[in-house]
Specification:
heterodimer; A: mainly alpha; Four Helix Bundle (Hemerythrin (Met), subunit A); 74% helix; extended; B: mainly alpha; two-stranded antiparallel sheet; 4 strands; 68% helix
Chain lengths: 169, 428
C-alpha cells in the first residue's frame, strides 16, 4: 500500500521535473529540475528492488553527470540573455501537439489491445549488486566488454579533440 | 512489527541522526583545542556556566548562540534566493545521511531475530556513501553560483572541481577494496575484518590494502574540503570562498556540515580500513562466549583509568598563579566526583553482568554496546587525525592539487586495482 503511494509520488515528481526542465527558461533551473527527475527515477528503481540501479542512478546520473553540467553552467555563467530568443514558441508548440496527436492515439490503441503476456514475478533480491554482476559477467560478458571499449574510445577521442593544439608558427 | 522492532528502529535512527550532530560539538572542540595544543597555546578555555568550562566545550554553546542570533541576511543583489538557501541545507543534509549506511555494531540477535545495526539497513553500503558525497557537490556549486559574487564563484569553482576530481581516485580505491572483501555491504565488510590473518594479525583493510588506505584517506580529505585541500577558502586570494555571502545560521550550516562530513568520512575510513566496530582479536562470537571474563577485566581496568584521568584533571585544572580559594580547584573537584560516580555506575552494571549471569540477550546487548563504544572511539581518533593534519600541513597550490589527483593518485589506484586483482585471483 505504502509502496503504491510512493510509486505515485515518485512518478508525479519525475514527470513534473521533466516538465520543469523543458519549460524553465534559465539553464540552472532546467538542470535542477532534471536532477529532481533523476532522483525520483532512482526512487522508482528502489521500489522495483533494483538496489544497484538505484545507487548507480544516484552516483552516475544525479551525482556525476548532472553535477558536471551544473558546473559548466556555472563556469560559463550562462544567463537567460545568452540563450537565443524563441519567436512563436507557443504556435510551434500548438502545431506540434496537433501533429503528434494522431500518432499518440494510435500508440494508445496499440498498447491497449496488446495481448497479456506471461509475466513471472521474480524475487526481491534480483536487483542487488551480486545478482546483477553475475548476469552481467556470465551471460553478457562480451557485449559488456564491447560497450566499455566503446566508452573508452569516446573518452580518448574527447581527450584528443580537447587536447592542447600545437601552436604553429 | 513487534514493540521491540519499533524500539530498535527508533534507537538506530536516533543513533544515526544524533551521533553525527553530537560529534559536531566534539569536532569543533577538538579542532580548537588541538590547534592550541599543536601551536603551543591553550585554545578557548574561558567560556563557562557558573564556573564550569568543561575543558572549553562551553565555547561551542556560545558560538552556537552567536550564530543563531546573528542577523540572517540575504544580500539584495542575489537573484536566485531559493538556491541560495538550498545550498547550505544540501551540504549539511547530504553529510548527515551519508552516515546512514555505516554499521556501528555487529548484527544484534535478540530472541531469535537479528537486527542490522545500521541507521538504514540496506545492502548497497559504500555506494550510498559515494552517492551522498556526489550530492554534496551541488551544495558547493549552488552556493558559489547563487552568491553572485566573484570570490564566491571562484571558491565554488575550485571546490567543485576538486571534489569532482577526487571522487575518481576515491571510487577506484573502493574498487580495489571491493575486490578484497567481495561485497559492497558495509556490515559484511566490517565482519570480514574480524578474521585473523595467519592466525594472529587482525584482517583489517589497512593491512590488506596499504596503498588503498593512503589513496582513500587523501581523497577523503579532499572530499571534505579539509586542509591541505581546503581550496574553498583562502583568505589572501578569495576570502571565504563559496560561503562569502552567507551569514548567521546559513553560514553555520556550512560550518556544521563540514564537521558532520568529517565525522562521516572518519566513520567510513574506520569501517573500510580499521576494522569498523571490531575489537582486535575479539570477534563477536568470542566476546559472546567470554562475556564474563571481559566484564571482569573491564571492572579491573576502569578504576585504574579513572584514577589516572582524575589525577590528570587535578594536575592541570589549577590556576598558574596564587588565587585564594582557587575556583579552578573547586571546579576540578566537581569533575573528579562526576568521573568517579560515572565509573561506579558502570562498575555496578558490569557487576550485575558478572554476578547474575544474564540471558543470551543480555550478553548480546553488552557486546553491542562494547562494539559501539569501540566504533566511536576509533572514529574520534580518526577525527583527531583530521585535526592533526589540518594544523600540521600548509595548503597546496591549486595546480599541485589537480596534479596530485590526476597524475599520481589516479595511476596509483589503477595499479593498485591490478595488483590486488592479481593477488586475489592467484590466492583463490
Amino acid at each position: 500500500m505504502l509502496s503504491q503511494w510512493l510509486f505515485y509520488a515518485f512518478a508525479t515528481v519525475s514527470v513534473l521535473g521533466a516538465l520543469g526542465l523543458i519549460l524553465s527558461r534559465h539553464p540552472m533551473n532546467g538542470a535542477m529540475w532534471f536532477v529532481v527527475t533523476l532522483v525520483s527515477l532512482a526512487g522508482l528503481y528502489s521500489l522495483l528492488s533494483a538496489s544497484l540501479l538505484f545507487a548507480l542512478q544516484l552516483i552516475v546520473y544525479a551525482g556525476a553527470i548532472m553535477s558536471l553540467i551544473i558546473f559548466i553552467i556555472m563556469f560559463l555563467n550562462i544567463q537567460p540573455a545568452d540563450i537565443p530568443d524563441e519567436k512563436g514558441k507557443w504556435a510551434y508548440l500548438l502545431g506540434g501537439c496537433l501533429a503528434v496527436t494522431p500518432i499518440g492515439l494510435l500508440l494508445l490503441k496499440i498498447v491497449s489491445t496488446l495481448p497479456g503476456g506471461e509475466i513471472d514475478i521474480v524475487g526481491n533480491g534480483f536487483g542487488n549488486v551480486k545478482s546483477v554482476g553475475m548476469v552481467l559477467f556470465r551471460d553478457w560478458l562480451l557485449p559488456f566488454e564491447i560497450v566499455s571499449i566503446l566508452l573508452l574510445v569516446a573518452l580518448v577521442g574527447a581527450v584528443v579533440l580537447a587536447g592542447k593544439k600545437e601552436i604553429t608558427q | 512489527m513487534s514493540q521491540l522492532d519499533i524500539l530498535l528502529v527508533v534507537l538506530r535512527v536516533a543513533f544515526g541522526a544524533f551521533i553525527p550532530i553530537c560529534f559536531i560539538a566534539i569536532g569543533v572542540w577538538m579542532e580548537r583545542r588541538g590547534a592550541g595544543f599543536i601551536q603551543d597555546r591553550l585554545g578557548p578555555n574561558r567560556c563557562n556556566i557558573f564556573g564550569f568550562r568543561f575543558g572549553g566545550l562551553v565555547q561551542n554553546l556560545a558560538d552556537g548562540v552567536k550564530l543563531i542570533f546573528k542577523e540572517d541576511m540575504i544580500a539584495g543583489h542575489i537573484p536566485h534566493r531559493f538556491y541560495f538557501v538550498l545550498a547550505p541545507v544540501l551540504v549539511f543534509f547530504t553529510a548527515l545521511v551519508s552516515f546512514a549506511a555505516i554499521p556501528f555494531a555487529d548484527t544484534l540477535v535478540l530472541g531469535g531475530r537479528s537486527y542490522i545495526m545500521q541507521t538504514i539497513p540496506f545492502d548497497i553500503g559504500i555506494l550510498w556513501f559515494l552517492a551522498c558525497t556526489g550530492f554534496a557537490v551541488y551544495g558547493i556549486i549552488l552556493a558559489g553560483w547563487s552568491s553572485h559574487n566573484k570570490y564566491g564563484i571562484l571558491g565554488g569553482l575550485r571546490s567543485a572541481a576538486q571534489v569532482i576530481a577526487y571522487e575518481i581516485p576515491m571510487g577506484l580505491a573502493v574498487v580495489s577494496l571491493l575486490v578484497v572483501y567481495g561485497t559492497v555491504n558495509l556490515s559484511e565488510i566490517a565482519r570480514f575484518q574480524g578474521q585473523l590473518l595467519f592466525g594472529f594479525i587482525p584482517m583489517w583493510g589497512v593491512i590488506l590494502q596499504p596503498l588503498g588506505v593512503v589513496i582513500f584517506i587523501v581523497a577523503a580529505f579532499a572530499e571534505t574540503n579539509r586542509t591541505p585541500f581546503d581550496f574553498a577558502e583562502g583568505e589572501s586570494e578569495i576570502v571565504a570562498g563559496f560561503h562569502i555571502e552567507y551569514s548567521s545560521m546559513k553560514f553555520g550550516m556550512f560550518f556544521l556540515g563540514e564537521y558532520v562530513a568529517m565525522f562521516a568520512s572518519s566513520a567510513i575510513i574506520v569501517t573500510l580500513f580499521f576494522g569498523g566496530y571490531q575489537i582486535p582479536w575479539l570477534a563477536t562470537e568470542t566476546m559472546v562466549a567470554y562475556a564474563q571474563p571481559i566484564a571482569i577485566v573491564l571492572m579491573l581496568l576502569l578504576p585504574v583509568i579513572t584514577y589516572y584521568f582524575t589525577n590528570w584533571i587535578r594536575k592541570n585544572n589549577v590556576s598558574h598563579y596564587y588565587r585564594p580559594n582557587d575556583p579552578l580547584v573547586r571546579e576540578a573537584n566537581v569533575y573528579i566526583k562526576i568521573c568517579w560516580i560515572l565509573a561506579a555506575a558502570v562498575e555496578l552494571i558490569l557487576l550485575t553482568l558478572v554476578v547474575i549471569n544474564p540471558s543470551a540477550d543480555g550478553v548480546r546487548i553488552f557486546v553491542v554496546l562494547l562494539q559501539m563504544a569501540t566504533f566511536l572511539l576509533k572514529a574520534t581518533i580518526m577525527c583527531f587525525v583530521y585535526v592533526w593534519v589540518r594544523w600540521t600541513l600548509p595548503r597546496f597550490r591549486y595546480d599541485q592539487l589537480q596534479k596530485l589527483g590526476w597524475q599520481i593518485l589516479l595511476p596509483m589506484s589503477l595499479v593498485n586495482i591490478f595488483i590486488t586483482s592479481a593477488v586475489v585471483v592467484a590466492l583463490s
